[in-house]
Structure formats: structure tokens, C-alpha cells
Design goal:
Blueprint: H1 12-29, H2 33-64, E1 65-69, E2 76-80, E3 84-86, E4 93-97, E5 100-103
Antiparallel strand pairs: 1-2, 3-4, 4-5
Helix pairs in contact: 1-2
Amino acid sequence: MNQNDFRQLNFSGLGCWLTLFAFVWLLGALGLGWLIKSFLVLMVLLILAPVVAFLGFRWWLRRNLVSAQCPVCQAEVSGINGMQATCLNCGTQLKAENDTFKRATSEGTIDIEAVEVNVEAVELPPAEQD
């Protein structure tokens, strides 16, 4: 008999699927279907966890991101609520509180605002005469 009379079938793509089907059927027949179901649940969780984490991070960032002006130089500064930030324009240490920035000072420091007064506007009392 000639060897060319036998035709060979190419099952390269189909063989993988048949093996997978046979493996799943064998596990189901042995009562290990729970193993496949738990594997599928694990795969769904691995796919959904980054999406949920990303959406949760965006929600948290929207609630806690503060964008306001520096109280010293009036430059626009962004930071996280309750944390310290540095003004990139003047270098002042700032603390974000209630959607505004305040200068970060140590305990016991009183922060005041200086007001410029025109000398001509100040009325001096008349000099006492002897």
C-alpha cells in the first residue's frame, strides 16, 4: 500500500478546544463543577476590581481635591483636603482646609494680616502746651 493514499487531517485548532471540552466534561462528571465556577468567579472579580477601584478613586479625588489661591501671593494652588502643600510661586507652606488654603504654622503662632496705612491720613494729637 502506498503511503500517499492516507490523508492526514489537520486538527491543530480543533484539538485544543476538544481537549478543553473533555477536561471540563471530566471535571463536571467527577462533581468538581464548583472548581470551574469558582475559577470563573475569580476571573470576573479580577476583571471588575480595577474598574471599581478606578471609579472609587475618581469619586474620592473629586471630593478631596482643593484648588484655590495662595493667601500670600494669590497664585493658583492645588492640593488634597487636610494635607499640606507648597505654593510653587512663593514657596509658602499651605494647609488645605474647607476648600481654601491657609498658611501652615506651628502651634501657638498667631497669623495676622498687615495693613498699609498712609502717613498723611493719620491725625496726630495737638502738642501739649506748657
